[in-house]
Specification:
about 240 residues; alpha/beta; Rossmann fold; 8 helices; 5 strands; thiamine pyrophosphate; magnesium ion binding
């Protein structure tokens, strides 16, 4: 079944009208010993392009049944995610300095019950993609041309076998409402021969590899048509330990 992609209407910006250039300053407000800086910074550009130009989500209606779903599987490095959500107006930027404190809703792993716009509690590697498959399957059963599902995983997460079961199932089921964004910072212990994208195409997915800092390349990859197939975008960034 082919899922039509409705035209994207960008969500309104926050009252401060914050753009990408504000994100480093927002991230700098979050301090502490458990920041996972490299894990967070690797996702910054990819997350921004998604939220600024692709996802149909609105901060004034975070629970809208027709919204696209974004699942951060790479939940151990949520600072960029929090900065993007704050910039888009899902919660006030003055929450950010409390990151990781006992009283703050912004934990070291995101909590869907505490943070507006967060769809899942995450951080245990290998959970997000299977959850995204189930979400896409459920939404397709209810509304075949309805909301899209996006999930962000790290390349090291693909060492977990649960992801490969999910990849194979989604390809066989033709879940074209499912989109996986893989941030490749050369952290995987067992990278697939032929590259990460080849693992997805072998399972029947549409897949592209792009520069994870190039906003136009990311946008073109995100919006590439993929009728009848789930879609993966591998965003290559600088190696984690470079």
């Amino acid at each position: 079944m082919t899922t039509a992609t409705p035209p994207h209407t960008p969500a309104p910006r926050s009252p401060e009208n914050l753009g990408f250039e504000a994100l480093p300053a927002l991230m700098s407000l979050m301090t502490g010993d458990e920041k996972h800086d490299a894990a967070a910074t690797s996702t910054l550009d990819a997350l921004w392009v998604l939220y600024d130009r692709v996802l149909r989500v609105r901060p004034d209606r975070p629970g809208d049944p027709g919204r696209d779903r974004f699942l951060l599987s790479k939940g151990h490095g949520p600072m960029a995610y929090y900065a993007v959500l704050a910039a888009r107006g899902f919660f006030p930027a003055d929450w950010l300095p409390g990151f990781g404190s006992y009283e703050s809703p912004l934990g070291h792993h995101p909590d869907r019950t505490l943070v507006p716009g967060v769809e899942i509690g995450s951080g245990s590697l290998g959970h997000g993609l299977p959850l995204a498959v189930g979400t896409a399957l459920g939404l397709r059963a209810r509304r075949p041309a309805g909301p899209r599902v996006w999930v962000l995983v790290g390349d090291a997460e693909l060492d977990e076998g649960s992801n490969h079961e999910a990849i194979d199932f989604a390809g066989a089921a033709g879940l074209d409402g499912l989109h996986t964004l893989v941030i490749d910072n050369s952290s995987a212990s067992h990278p697939p021969p032929g590259g990460i994208a080849s693992r997805f195409t072998a399972a029947g997915w549409s897949a592209l590899t792009v520069d994870g800092r190039d906003h136009e390349a990311l946008y073109a990859a995100y919006t590439r048509p993929h009728p009848g197939r789930p879609h993966a975008v591998v965003a290559r960034v600088e190696p984690k330990h470079a």
